[in-house]
From TrEMBL:
It comes from Corallococcus soli. Residues 178-302 form the DUF6310 domain. Residues 1-17 form the signal peptide. It holds the Pfam family DUF6310. This is DUF6310 domain-containing protein. Residues 141-189 are annotated as: Disordered.
Length: 302
């Protein structure tokens, strides 16, 4: 109850301290986006999934619901005004840190983060989706959201352990989550192999690639790209297929189809979809003749 009283006070202060946006600023000052940007500067133990779910609520409520997910060992709180020392009395579950962080406008130096903050994957994807929506509403990727659960105070809420292996990815179906608990199914970015500049460029430019500049190790295989939101692993082929002789095309295709079928099986075993990128329609057509179940895309970005 005391936590709720603190939240109500902070919301009132927020309303008084914030002037209404002009019509031209309405989109730029989206409360959800503002909350995501503020949260991006903080360290989270759940890659920001709680914040993404709660970001549409006022910031003090976001803090209340997600305070448990902060990496509090990396945070230092200061209360230069002394207001939080009084407001937090009796709210031991949250303390001064909660009060300082939930304030309508955080005073410079009140929250100090130890070390470098890497933006949580879930927050980054939500911010990227927001920017895409502003740039092209018809081509935007929907932000992952879940139906709001019954709200409870931080004092009553216990941190729930996250299944191992989900550090890199957004929420997934239960069966995929079970598979990814296997250590070999956790995506790990690793340096590109070799010095094939064209191949690496085509892989890095896969739309919404979560790890440009790296391969992704999954289930013992280095894949060329991973679309985090869609959970799709990619293999990129940059052969000049159209210039090959008929005999060479046959040899290359037979070898590639065997490899791609094996790689697809490895991806599916860990709950990922699998896609192949090629540079020409002829190459796509020829692969489809040998295995029509392969999902092949002509890379117009390459």
């Amino acid at each position: 109850m005391y936590a709720r009283a603190c939240i109500a006070l902070l919301l009132i202060l927020s309303a008084c301290a914030t002037s209404g946006p002009s019509p031209g600023e309405a989109v730029a000052r989206s409360p959800r986006n503002a909350n995501l940007q503020r949260a991006a500067a903080l360290p989270w133990t759940d890659e920001g999934r709680c914040v993404v779910q709660e970001a549409s609520h006022p910031w003090p409520e976001v803090v209340e619901q997600c305070f448990h997910a902060l990496d509090q060992e990396r945070l230092r709180f200061r209360d230069p005004t002394g207001r939080c020392a009084v407001a937090s009395a009796g709210a031991a579950a949250m303390g001064i840190g909660f009060c300082v962080l939930a304030a309508p406008e955080i005073i410079v130096g009140a929250v100090i983060v130890v070390g470098v903050v890497v933006v949580g994957i879930a927050i980054k994807e939500a911010l990227d989706a927001y920017e895409l929506k502003r740039a092209d509403p018809e081509d935007a990727v929907p932000v992952l959201e879940t139906k709001p659960a019954p709200r409870e105070s931080v004092a009553e809420r216990r941190p729930k352990p996250q299944p191992a292996g989900q550090d890199w990815l957004p929420p997934m179906p239960p069966d995929a989550r079970e598979r990814e608990r296997r250590p070999e199914c956790k995506p790990i970015p690793v340096p590109h192999l070799g010095g094939d500049v064209l191949h690496n460029m085509c892989a890095d430019r896969v739309p919404r690639n979560g790890f440009p500049g790296s391969d992704v190790l999954v289930n013992g295989k280095r894949f060329d790209a991973l679309q985090l939101h869609a959970r799709v692993l990619w293999e990129v082929k940059t052969d000049n297929f159209d210039t090959y002789t008929a005999d060479l095309q046959r040899i290359v295709l037979e070898k590639q189809v065997r490899e791609l079928q094996r790689e697809r099986a490895l991806a599916l075993a860990c709950g990922f979809e699998f896609r192949v990128g090629v540079r020409s329609a002829a190459h796509k057509f020829a692969l489809g003749l040998l295995d029509e179940t392969l999902e092949v895309v002509v890379m117009d970005w390459c």
